[in-house]
Amino acid sequence: MSVLEKSEWERDQRRQKREQIKERMKEKEMRYVLTKYSGVFSACVAVLGVVSVFGWNFKNYKKQQRSYQLAIAASALSQPHSKRPIKDYVHREDEEQRLRQTLRQQDLSHPRILVFAGFYGCGKSILFRSAIRKEKMAAAFVDIRPNEDPLRSIVKSLNVQNIDACGDLLNFIGEASDRARKAMHGVTPLFVLKIRDGSSLLRIYNEAVALACDRRLCHVIIEVPIESLTIAMTALPRLDFHLVPNFSVSEAFRYTHHLIDPLELTHFVEVVGTNSNDLDELLAAVRHAHMSATTYTNQKLVKAMRQLQAAWAKDPSLREAVIKLARFPFEEGQSEGYDYSSLRNEALRDIVMYNAVADVWMFQKKVFHTAACCWQ
């Protein structure tokens, strides 16, 4: 190598070192690094975006599958009822013990569907929850609303997110019940079906029988307002009917938390009754409308008397039938000797009712019974 070539080579080496030093100095500045490697960063961000979108779509795809929905349903059905105390619950020792004994007597080898009937506001729902909680049972509470498929309502109560992916709903509920039973080491799951206003026992009868009796996959309890029951419903096979009464006097006092004068509340109970809906209205009138309980009770009675007077105004036979019905205790009703054509008259539809479970005619509310007694 000549001297000139060697000199040129050394200059190139020094120039490269200077460039490397300059590059290192520039790379200490973040802005230069971002500019220099912007292509690499963009590619990484794009890849990360593609991966995240793919993962999100794949996760959602799995959630839409029937197997995923089935796992959710089985998990919901096998979860024991909450141990937290029920807010504002009035302990009903006799009714609760009777219900708990009935729950323990259920046998899947001899399946029966239990139907608990009571007036609106008698405390059926909260009584069920308390008994099931104390029995440490896993249960699904289902609201059966009008114009909605009963099986769809059951699946919805199991926290299923995509009902359309479940396929045949009866088979889906059966598989979920089977998985839940295995998860609970052979304990049969329980469905509590609550029939809402406008719905009917006849709408859910076939599905309930298919689940509890034909396939024997679960126990079924139906909660139904006694006002909606008919003779045809009580004649359906495989149903055992039980009545849930209104509060007793002592339970009514506990329900109002002793916020009302005892004498005034006693007067209210004697005239209007112990239904929780009536007690709620009384509390609202006393606490928010600043009305005395006695005044409110008298207003309720006068209103009921006027309603009776308007109902039988055009037909004296209706008055005679109502007065005759009032001679029997409100809770017992009239089982014989009644005027059937008069009591089933459209004018008395909101006043009297036929109790298909006890096979008696009775007043829908005690205040009507009291009002009829006042007209005697």
From TrEMBL:
SUPFAM superfamilies: P-loop containing nucleoside triphosphate hydrolases (SSF52540). The chain crosses the membrane at residues 37-58. Residues 4-31 form a coiled coil. InterPro entries: P-loop_NTPase. Keywords: Coiled coil, Membrane, Transmembrane, Transmembrane helix. Gene3D superfamilies: P-loop containing nucleotide triphosphate hydrolases. PANTHER family: TUZIN. This is Tuzin. It comes from Trypanosoma cruzi.
